Amino acid sequence: MERLQKVMAHAGVASRRGAEKLITTGHVKVNGQTVTELGVKVGKHDSVMVDEMPIQTEMPVYILMNKPRQVVSTVHDDKHRKTVIDLLDNEIRERVYPVGRLDYDTTGLLLLTNDGALANQLTHPKYEVEKTYIAKVQGIPTNDELKQLRKGVKVEGKLTAPAKSKLVSSDQAKKTAIVSLTIHEGKNHQVKKMLQAIGHPVMKLKRENYAFLTLKGVQPGEFRDLNPEEVKQLKKLVSLD
Question: Which residues lie in coiled coils (predicted)?
Fold first, then answer.
């Protein structure tokens, strides 16, 4: 059993405070009865309606996945390609969805959840949640080029936010390099476009970190539940707790 306002927030109806206001002003019904008190608790079998519209009352689920290549990070795909939901292989009964996206050919750390409020906050640019990517690129970036990434580069006419960049290794014979790039923006194909902007197209790309979370112990195609402390830390990052 969870407090009603918490269930509403998890369903993405409103923030916790917004949900409390909806309750106290008579917008919420539980099992057909209008509720105006904040102490009410509900379970997954209870019916909750906000302004006569039902909401999901299932318990929140938080999953960390190591997405392999050639898998799309969507719930459904019109081209019938394998999705990250397919990788769950019916082990998760609740309906979850990805927090943001990784490209079809990009691998690495992806979060999935049914907690709409947290998902929205994690992807909102104002919270500046950091993501670290490891890229194999053509050519070997110079210090000056890496400094450009730290200051921001022009992508489609707009300056990107400053990033953390580092040359991890280089192969002089093959003229390739491994670069670490940490960003807090989440525009479409952003890492690829930033590295392209300094003249080093991406050959392979992997997301290794999402905030404090890593892929330790999770092989490509595998997933695990976040533990309560990890969920608490994520919420603290976006001031939801």
Answer: none
State how far the Cα of 22 lies from the Cα of 48, in Å rounded to an integer.
Answer: 12
Active-site residue, 103 included: yes
pTM of the shown model: 0.79
The whole-angstrom separation of Cα 97 and Cα 159 is: 30
Find out if CATH 3.80.10.10 is the number for domain 2-54. no
Neighbour tally for 124: CB within 10 Å: 12
Give 145-196 pLDDT, tens digit per residue: 999 999 999 999 999 999 999 999 999 999 999 999 999 988 889 999 999 9
Identify the CATH number of the domain defined by range 130-210.
3.30.70.1560
* Residue of 51, 77, 89, 103 marked active site: 103
Average pLDDT on 81-92 reads 91
Question: Three-class SS string for 59-105?
Answer: CCCEEEEEECCCCECCCCCCCCCCEHHHHCCCCCCCCCEECCCCCCC
